[in-house]
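Hey, I'm writing a tutorial for new members on how sequence and structure tokens pair up, and I'd like a real worked example in the thread rather than a made-up one. If someone can provide the structure for the chain below, I'll link this post from the tutorial.
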Amino acid sequence: MRASRLSRELTVTVAALCITLLTAIPAMAQKKGGTLRLYHNDNPPSTSLLEESTIASVMPFAAVFNNLVTFDPAKVHESIETVVPDLAESWAWDPTNTRLTFKLRQGVKWHDGQPFTAKDVQCTWRMLIGKAETQDFKRNPRKVWYTKLKDVSVNGDFEATFELSEPQPSLPVLLASAFSAVYPCHVPQQVMRTRPIGTGPFKFVEFKRGESIRLVRNPDYFKKDRPYLDEITVRTIDSRATRMLAFSTGDYDITFPSDVSIPLMKDVKARAPNAICEVITTGTLINLMVNRVNPPFDNPEIRRAMSLALDRKPFNSILMEGTARLGGAMLPKPEGEWGMPAEMQASLTGYGSEAEKNLTEAQAIMQKLGYSDAKPLQIKIQTRNLPTYRDPAVILSDQLKKIHIVAELDILDTPRWYSKLQRKDYTIGLNVTGVSVDDPDGNIVENYSCNSERNYTQYCNAEVDKLLAAQSRELDKEKRRKMVWDIERILVEDAARPVILHSSAGNCWQPHVKNFKPHDNSQYNNLRFEDVWLDK
């Protein structure tokens, strides 16, 4: 008994001593200074985040800007619960859920020294909804996010209210996207496209197109202890093999978002065994785009045949070694907030286990329309000049041959690719759609609603638009989720924009890079680097 009691007393004493020692040792202090060395896999179309739709612009330039609110960079999963203050200190809905008022930070300065005020918030969203006196956006891909926004009113310099025509519970989430940067009223958009001015942790220095980008620490940042880094440099490297080798030899600190394909991950780890690498869902989805107004693809039977011919398993096994997610327009579970149940998804056309039966049906459709091996349908598949686009386009071309469609790949650089999409100047495209916010208003509305600038296939279904409007104003998330599943079923049956896979990929960083956390349902919203520091 006595020995037992002594043992217990000793255990308690040791435990107490451990706690004392742990509390006495300070947490690893963040080190100030240093240059974060990044590479880029492409050429950004411009520096204006409000006008662009690609991570090619977000990765190097998100650090220049702030939002009203943002997703907590330390939380891997993004949702309404992880939205935190940024330029806004707080926000609140009125009882009707149609007025969202933001209390703004005071003392914030633009990089040119001008004060940030509520007028800048008002000006930014009036431009986005087409209500500004001067409207000089070349593109406005996010306008469709704000169809319910009637105006932004201000109350003094530090309060702004978003006035909606009806409730839109997704609004804070949309405002947390990297594509929802607040712009300065006093700077014309021509300047924002080439020499952006923000309030963010880093100031723009130079952009040598196709070569390099440089940002430096903002000494007047409103978070007085941020950023830790002195500067960020970005070099453009066209070859992925060269990029992987350069990272492995220590020339760069972090790989470009989702640039490390699953097959390449082993090579990177073999060359750089100390590197930290994570496989994660990217928030991007590989999809087949068919311009529905161009003959013969204005025939819904051909579009259905193409959709049935898609065998998603080879895409997954070849490109991602089985780690990709199968889903509709919304990111599936477990990472996705809105993914439909597995049994419901399996019941969708082309999603079950009957690939051979689907192919036979697709072949019969094409033969009925007069196509055969002797008389194939000759087309071009246009895609972007990146491996993440080219590689699935090759597999797509091979699968379409089985239904008498012979495709030639037409590879385009990024500016030409987005220009053609904008003009709807293509017939068939293999696209990788990046979803900056895991919410139907930031994804399905943007890519499938009739009047969206980013509805590149020109798909338009009045029933879908009606359902999109209904889910957008629904305050009960479970009811809203079921509405989204109804929309997903219609999109699949219409072959609106057949989704092949939701991608997974690797991100790697050197062990001296601290506080960098890729997010699991979007790769767009953790690239400001204000919390990142270098332990070297």
